Amino acid sequence: MDHSLFYIGGSWVPPLAANPFAVENPATEETVTHISLGSAADVDRAVAAARAAFPGWAATPLSERRATVERFLQIYKNGYEEMARAISTEMGAPITMAREQQADTGIGHTQGFLDALGALDWEWHLPNGDTLMRDPIGVVGLITPWNWPVNQIALKVIPALLTGCPCVLKPSEIAPLSAMIFARMLDAAGLLAGVFNLVNGTGPEVGAALSRHPDIAMMSFTGSTRAGAAVSRDAADTVKRVTLELGGKNPNIVFADCNLAERVAGAVAECMNNSGQSCDAPTRLIVERSVYDQVVDLVRAAAEATEVGDPGQEGPHIGPLVSGLQWDRVQALIQAGIEDTGRLISGGLGKPEGFDTGHYARPTVFADLTPDMRLWHQEVFGPVLTITPFEDEAEAIRLANDTTYGLAAYVQTGDSARARRVARQLRAGMVHVNGAPHNYGSPFGGYGQSGNGREGGLLGLEDFTEVKAVHGL
């Protein structure tokens, strides 16, 4: 592929002005290709193409829109290995993880939306006799991050297409390769020209131009809370809908009655997965006092057993952080943990032994963390776990909810009644009990500064629609 091109109006086109940007392999620190950074004028072209396509795509029978997405899904499956390797190259996910988790999201979420589509009511009646009708919201702008690139692209692009909304995607400029393959696959599926468009670029330039654009009816953004607030501000003047999936500082409550060896090992693995670069990672381990010392020992052993390795090699290891900038941010927060007198029990500053090249970080654990420390509140987005004791269930819930975020929470207990009781009181959009994973088709999203709206399945489809009441039919 010529990575310098954008996909606009059904064709690969050059940017209006040359502005090359190097895409780095974070494991080798070598440039793998160059993309173009777009401008507001490029956004105008893409939005115009999407706006021109809107009447025809909205009027296309649902069965045909569905058939187009089903063709795409088969093309995606045929190109699965290419997608996995692109993700591994651009953001450092080990190839086994890229294949089993990262690339799999493209299939899982697409199928989840297809499965939910039949449950989406386009017209229904109220008991008072009025009729409600559902319409596509219009042209949508989509901004996706680098940490789970295809996951977020699928969660935004597929529901837009199925509900009749043309879209303009701005993927992360740090990890654009998978997005461009995704675009090529949509093109091969025979999508109507202008229904999907891709413009690479930065958030302050292309992202802001999308958010401010008067012809965009909705913005769907995934990324940092700071950037999400900027999208909301930019969108305010045109009063468009904004859905946000943002950060998290997610608690993991460990009660003494769970299978400690199994659940603690799972907790560490979940935190370190993707090198800790997941918004829903369980980074705050909150442990019942009676087993606290035992859990600290188990966590130390699990963290020390976490292997760091070359993402090009098969295996269960973790890879590098996505960039030098991200590595610096993680190091600064590890330093904050040390300065705040958190008890460092594993890892620490610097790179793992033998990794002079690449943005590799050491799996790091702090024990005895308290709510007055910076690591309690700040999202690290790296392989860093903290441990805090609690005395009783009420304190566990209070500590878990002591965050401005509210994306995910985790509960480990052998008591099903307690699990239900605690889950009900946790202020989070998703609660995982005893290692249960997030399933395709279930809503993903959070409370508070973790954002608004939900992605995935039926609720993810509904976010891309408007509802009108018709009286007198």
Automatic annotation (TrEMBL):
UniProt xrefs under InterPro entries: Ald_DH/histidinol_DH, Ald_DH_C, Ald_DH_CS_GLU, Ald_DH_N, Aldehyde_DH_dom
Coiled-coil positions: none
Keyword Oxidoreductase: yes
Source superkingdom: Bacteria
Official protein name in the record: Aldehyde dehydrogenase family protein
Transmembrane spans: none
Segment forming the signal sequence: none
PROSITE patterns the record matches: ALDEHYDE_DEHYDR_GLU
Keywords, alphabetical: Oxidoreductase
Active site: E245
Source species: Litorisediminicola beolgyonensis
Family: Belongs to the aldehyde dehydrogenase family.
